[in-house]
């Protein structure tokens, strides 16, 4: 690659920020639109889970293959293709007139995001060295992180003034700017030593994760022991096992499974995955509670999610100081215990609960996520040898996104199962009863159309029962991970990193 001037390097980095900002926005912007989609597209709870998870499943399954493709074919070309796919998918989502079309568009967005995320980071070492490289990676990471808290606020404001398609349309100007800036500013780069792309392994990962999520999402409707649920779950697990087996046997695997021999990488990845499960599960349910049960507007819902975002930022910033003073192990365990406490508080939420209590447990949850996620991620990155930093970082991101997809599927299905079992409707016409059983949004629409406040109250009670059950499971999960992973997590991974440089065999 020809040398690049300092000014052009930083302008090229700015162009990469546009793509990552869009991905960060898209991860959270849709959550406040779920109640609107439930009404406008007549979407059931399972449909809403798929609208969220189609994106995350594609993203999780394709992160590693997309990064390898960029290394081998040229990062600039592949990055432009990823942005084009993302833009086309946003356009399709904007004009979608059915749940099926929107789910397909969301899956296509996930494909584009899977390209943009790893390839944007992989470009940096070809343009920056030393301290500049560290600063560039930090700026790209911050660019994506900024999109996460902006998503609910921007989505709420758009839904307040425009139709739901605007939450996808808003991405297009940023994508166009990023596309042309990258085309003119970013130099091409490749890595001839990158591992080969394994087509079978990639297909097994994509289909396996999708089948597993399908089985879990459809379980409340078809039954947890139904043939479709068992085939989806067991078939998905079998394909994922086949993917792992193919990587173990391959002389040139896409995934370096040897990384899991390092204690910091293994337990740090587990903690980060669990935190992502909890966070995505909460973000799936809480906006529906605030918007449908409590009757807040979309923008009001976005504002009421700020305690969680604020807690996440405070926890993330405070984690560094706590880890420096008390060690990473203490900080991670404290974060998981705090998450469990927030989940336990959330179980006391009912229809009509004042926002004061909700704000408290949202803030506690956010702080717990930040305290556990930041040191876990930092420990994983510290454990990686320089020659395996890129693949190790991509693997951890894959695990986190997989955790998010499974979190939405599992916790959404638990909430749906409890909702259906606890729902005690007054006599209704068959079609109205079916709509009310499908989702709390459907029940609210039926109650309004028929003038039946009893229907609404029964649905709201059943929904909060389901949400309480989910948060109870989340509290137990956080405690289990704290007990299982916390004591095994290194107290000072930086010290272990230095030691591993003298004893390479331990990290291999």
Automatic annotation (TrEMBL):
Membrane topology of the entry: Multi-pass membrane protein
Q: Which GO terms describe its cellular component?
A: plasma membrane
In this chain the Major facilitator superfamily (MFS) profile domain maps to: 12-493
* Cellular localisation: Cell membrane
Q: Which GO terms describe its molecular function?
A: transmembrane transporter activity
Looking at the UniProt entry, the stretches that span the membrane are: 48-66, 78-96, 102-124, 136-157, 163-185, 197-217, 223-244, 264-286, 298-319, 326-348, 354-381, 466-485
* Principal localisation: membrane
Q: Give one Pfam hit by family name.
A: MFS_1
- Alphabetical UniProt keywords: Cell membrane, Membrane, Transmembrane, Transmembrane helix, Transport
Question: What superkingdom does the record give?
Answer: Bacteria
Keyword Cell membrane listed: yes
- CDD domains tied to this protein: MFS_MMR_MDR_like (cd17321)
Protein name listed in UniProt:
DHA2 family efflux MFS transporter permease subunit
> Which species expresses this protein natively?
Glycomyces lechevalierae
